[in-house]
Amino acid sequence: MPNAVDTHADAVNEKVVYQNPLLFLKVWELQGVERVRRPTDAWPWHYHKEVEFLAILEGGLEVQTMTSLTMLGPGDVMVIGSSRPHRTWSAIGEAVRYIVFQVDLVRHFDQSILPYLHHFSELTGPLDDLNYIFEGNPAAKTEAHALIAEIYGETYGGKPGYEIAVSASIKRLLLLLLRGDDRGVLRGTEEAGIARMRPVLDYVETRLGEKIAVDDVRRLLGMSYHHFIKTFKRTMGIPFVDYVNYNRIKKSGAIAAHDRSEHHGGQLRGGHLEHGAVLQIVQAAQPAFAKRVQAADAQLTAKNSENNPLTNRTRTSPICSRSGPTPSIVGLPFFLRIDRNRRSPCGTRVLRIPACNL
To answer: Could you tell me the CATH number of the domain that includes residue 44?
Structure first.
């Protein structure tokens, strides 16, 4: 049992070093020797921003959080929420072997599953509350255990494409938690987060063709500027400006798709927008953003035009009406991706926008 004088006030903030910086995770196997813990032994608390999953392979493990003390055995699984102080110890008189899986879940929410990010934002409670799924649903526990073991095996196997396999297993783990939540723990987070932001989302949706200032929307919620910026990003998963620009481009892409039989220059072609058309869309309500992109274009093209014959082509810019090399996409929001091998009939590069978002 834990020492009665221990508290989590002095918990250590553990910095997790990712094994693959593109996967934002750390997974490894631990083995504990057979030992007996005395009341005077140190049993330090620690925490980290990453969500932690434990999958027991052999023996027993004692896990304490701020609200529970749990004994895990072979085949058991436990999840510990982000920045939740916790500590572990091998069960009395037993050797233990288990997998520790730490992951920054937010980094694995791409555009296709972004609408579910708020479910796992832990606004109303920690992910620890989902452990009831593993306690009362043997099938879910077995599947989660297998997924964690699969992530561990793929990471250390290092076979070609293991990143794809790991990413897919993480998404399956998220789906398992989402569908196994019979008590609506995750839906409570949705109601608290999205319902609060609903006036802002409706405001943006009806004014995509106008200039939208943070000062205008923050007043709808009675928040200060900095409070609103932090709260919106935590709830929606992306910054407010990126959210606005993303919806503008998505709406414009849908219009272009509907009208592409009549319009050709700079319009959608099979899910693609040319760079100039995208900047025209964004510049309509974000002139400062467009100027920043133009400045980056000028610096990049001046440096690369001599060595790249493709960028030596001159044409009239759709934004600033000047003759110059084909612009780059430096400075565009993160949700845009350039297809460097795809070009329009006039030789300019085009931007790819996922078809599911149009």
So the answer is: 2.60.120.280
| In-domain check, residue 6 | no
Give me the number of domains the chain comprises: 3
- Boundary (domain end) residue, out of 237, 256, 274: 237
Q: Which domain holds residue 223?
A: 187-237
Evaluate if residue 357 carries a pLDDT over 60.
no
Predicted local confidence at residue 254, as pLDDT:
53
Judge contact between 38 and 89, C-beta under 8 A. no
Nearest to 147 by CA among 132, 160, 134: 134
How many whole angstroms separate alpha carbon 3 and alpha carbon 67? 15
Q: How far apart are CA 308 and CA 143, in angstroms?
A: 52
Stretch 238-260: mean pLDDT, rounded? 69
- Is pTM beyond 0.70? Reply is no
In order, the DSSP letters of 19-49 are: SBTTTTEEEEEEEE------TTS----EE-S
Distances (CA, A) of 47 to 13, 71, 119: 5, 19, 21
**29 lies in the same domain as 145:** yes
